[in-house]
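Standup notes
- DV: blocked on the single-chain target, sequence here:
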Amino acid sequence: MCTRYISPEDREIEAAWHVGARTPERWARDMHPLYLSPFMRRARESADYERELVTGQWGLIPVFSPSHIPQTKPRKGETKGKRLSTVNARVNGIEQKPTYRNAWTKGQRCIIPARSFIEPCWETGEHVPWNFRRADGQLWGLAGLWDTWTDFETGEVWDSYTMLTLNANLHPLMSRMHKLEFDSKTKMPLPIQDKRSLVPLEAHDFDRWLTCTVEEARAMLELPSVALFDAAPLAVQQP
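- DV (later): unblocked, structure below
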């Protein structure tokens, strides 16, 4: 699962998607779970189709959650609320998962802009972060879901989002990422792994992703081609 990515500046988002010019919201560039970051969705206040750029928490807050931990930067020793691992959502069975079911069935899909994202490779036996950029130099537009959560104590409304992931066991590149699971007795890698991949969208599919039916959206979710990536260890390729 992805737990770090590099967010573009508002001017880069405007140039790529024609939305969010001179937005007053600020966000960190080096994104981690529970940070506030921009994402695009279908505008809710417009009768006609329009995109809107909003800032929300990376880590979808379920509608049933009693509390959460919003962050714009790390907070050491923070204990308030219950932190749920919702920065990534597995597509398989998503319509049955209480955390994501509301957003998925309502078609609350979003596009998450990213300059690059970072994944761990354990082929050497050690954690080696790899940086993933687009080979064509464009920004990533990653498939996600968003939802709105209300704090019933304060009345404050929070937007939040999650990135969708697919099984990547057979993907030539993404299957190399993340740590292998081993049998406790034989010490051999388990035959069934669950490597994951984010789902990048292409420019011709951006509007369709935000407006199509749930059935059509599921059909759009495919593993990316290896040719799409410019990937290397982070030590030799800065994001």
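- Follow-up: Residues 94 and 100 are 6 Å apart (CA to CA).
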